[in-house]
């Protein structure tokens, strides 16, 4: 689907913030210092009350919207929703996108230099949890002079961060948009993540996570991990409509090569991802997904965990999303309603499976636009 960038934010520039204060992580490890790479769109008002934080999903980054002067084809991953007059209207809002800790797009992560050794962190980079990302994002908000976000929004793992913000910093978030997310992963989702990790860990070029020093990368494992993940992001109907059982050569080849169009597509997606993403980051991100479970703080009661939240919520799901099915979003809604908290819910009919939250679907965008239209700044 072509994306119209004519009315978007245009050319953008990534920024870097360095933090010297140590960050204590949920694992018990301490990160002595770190960098966060981020981008901003729109203008922060005098009261600093119009800021929206966009949290990225597993494979996302700080580059949420716009293009770069030296890379005009590198369009932000959520460009279709951000810009003048778009649902995240940059005529009203100051929008911030951050590459999370452990990332591979500029923020401190496994491929960064460990000051203690002078070598890339590799497998020595500590595991991070969603709460660690939120605490780091809060420090960035402090740096920008933002006491409270007008809204925090994200899809998938990004939606989990919005949920975590509402629990951990209830006075610093006025609205939370939790899209195509879940209060915790099912056993099936954890299983998918583990198979993806095993593909990377068993790659002979992984070298225990220190492949940087060997001048190689576990390309084969990362490629397989992405292919598996990509299957779960799409709906069966969409794959059938796009590829069906079409053969590339028009007839059976009786080989193990690429014969079906869907095979070609998956291998292309795997190759493209493996070229730009870091395998250690993939491992970290999937573990953060597995660990996320705020109900643990309420003795297994999600409503108890959410009781501290002061934000107004929009929870949105998609009919064809079987990775994070609508029933998972309704668990969040039910918990908020149990507490008498302010929540709106939209279950949208969209054909793109889990990836629907990335698409410029008119009804979906209308829901986001309507909710944010009621945000007072």
UniProtKB/TrEMBL annotation:
One of its GO terms (biological process) is methionine biosynthetic process. It catalyses: L-homoserine + succinyl-CoA = O-succinyl-L-homoserine + CoA. It is an enzyme of class 2 (transferase). Substrate binds at residues 226, 355. GO terms for cellular component: cytoplasm. Its EC number is 2.3.1.46. The keyword Acyltransferase applies. Residues 50-346 form the AB hydrolase-1 domain. It is found in: Cytoplasm. Pfam families: Abhydrolase_1 (PF00561). InterPro entries: AB_hydrolase_1, AB_hydrolase_fold, HAT_MetX-like. The record marks 323 as: Important for acyl-CoA specificity. One of its GO terms (molecular function) is homoserine O-acetyltransferase activity. The active site is at 156 (nucleophile), 321, 354. Transfers a succinyl group from succinyl-CoA to L-homoserine, forming succinyl-L-homoserine. HAMAP family: MetX_acyltransf (MF_00296). Homodimer. Belongs to the AB hydrolase superfamily. MetX family. This is Homoserine O-succinyltransferase. It comes from Georgfuchsia toluolica.
